[in-house]
Amino acid sequence: MKKTDFDAVILDLGGVILNIDYNLTVQAFKQLGFTNFEAQYSKLQQSGLFDLLETGQVSEEEFVSSIQESILHATHQEIIDAWNALLLDFPEGRINTVRRIAEAFPTYLLSNTNSIHYKAFNQTLKKQTEVEDIKDLFDKAYLSHEIKLRKPNKEAFQIILDEHNLDPKRTLFVDDSPQHIEGALKLGIKAYHMKDNDSLEALFAPLLT
What we know:
Blueprint: E1 8-11, H1 22-32, H2 48-54, H3 60-68, H4 76-84, H5 92-104, E2 107-111, H6 115-129, E3 140-143, H7 144-147, H8 154-163, E4 171-175, H9 178-186, E5 190-193, H10 200-204
Parallel strand pairs: 1-2, 1-4, 2-3, 4-5
């Protein structure tokens, strides 16, 4: 890849910029007594309740109440803490790379997330970097619970292409989930699947020199 290949960049958040570990949330819910949680929520798929939360169709209170139907003794805060357990840290090198990308290209965030995680990871971001909001690092952020659309739904990508008059063939999308990569490729977007041992810094080095 070279800089002249692209006019814009779309980045995922979790697994690309923010370190996450789905298993930590699975284990946290198991400890609360939700024994089959991994059957309903993982990197590759999730059940209806989580889709509704990530598309802003249920509130935090409704989400917690629904979870409490499966683990009656769990408090509101215990459920929030378990749900947030997967959120780890923002490596400094990645934040610096995002800043450099945003200086070189129109850069957009497209993340499947929710209001609970949004508050939690912004607290971590501010503590680590003094950046108040993840949105401050991008020309515009498209968060699933705000746009009411999740990847790999093609409309989630199309809204960015349309709003900014982007040519999909000259737009680079980076994500760590194969199903999201497939969704982007169907629209003709150039997509890169980030693996566990990949480096955002190394990926973009040829584009930032």
